[in-house]
Specification:
Strand content: 15-25%
CATH topology: HIT family, subunit A
Largest sheet: 5 strands, antiparallel
Structural class: alpha+beta
Distance between the termini: 35 Å
Strand order of the largest sheet: 1-2-3-5-4
Radius of gyration: 17 Å
GO molecular function: catalytic activity
Active site: 97
Order of helices and strands: HEEEHEEH
CATH architecture: 2-Layer Sandwich
InterPro entries: Histidine_triad_CS, Histidine_triad_HIT, HIT-like, HIT-like_sf
Motif (Histidine triad motif): 95-99
Number of domains: 1
Domain HIT: 3-110
Number of strands: 5
Shape: globular
Helix content: 25-40%
Length: 134
């Protein structure tokens, strides 16, 4: 059982922000900046790949509402929404969730990766490998 399952079940105390039938949101104990909220699916799906489309929509609907509330309450200069999958993708808790992170100029938060800059033909070749259904 993950720590998120324990939080959702009320076995571990937290500062709850939002709850509905599919989503549970709480203040991140590691507050990168004041107002940092974790939004988790109630069902213990490990990654975004394990969710239904409806669950993904519910998760992002809740994140949208929470981001608006964070913006109003904390007036950040910006907001970062972060969702990570599997350890190589920076996921630290194996329960699908995202972070609503209020941001401020020079807050010390970084997120960077080396850009590869393939040409347009290479991008089209990569796109052709995907089979996304409308």
């Amino acid at each position: 059982m993950t720590v998120f399952e324990k939080l959702i079940a009320g076995e571990v105390p937290c500062a709850k922000v939002f709850e509905d039938s599919e989503v549970f949101a709480f203040m991140d104990a590691g507050q990168v900046n004041p107002g940092h909220v974790v939004v988790a699916l109630k069902r213990p799906a490990e990654t975004i790949l394990d969710m239904t489309e409806e669950e993904a929509a519910a998760l992002f609907r809740a994140a949208h509402r929470i981001a608006r509330a964070v913006d109003e309450a904390f007036t950040p200069s910006g907001i970062t929404i972060l969702q990570a999958n599997r350890p190589a993708g920076w996921q630290t808790v194996p329960h699908v969730h995202l972070h609503v992170l209020p941001r401020h100029e020079d807050d010390g938060v970084t997120l960077g990766w080396p850009r590869k800059n393939p040409d347009l033909d290479q991008l089209r070749t990569l796109a052709a490998r995907l089979r996304v259904q409308a």
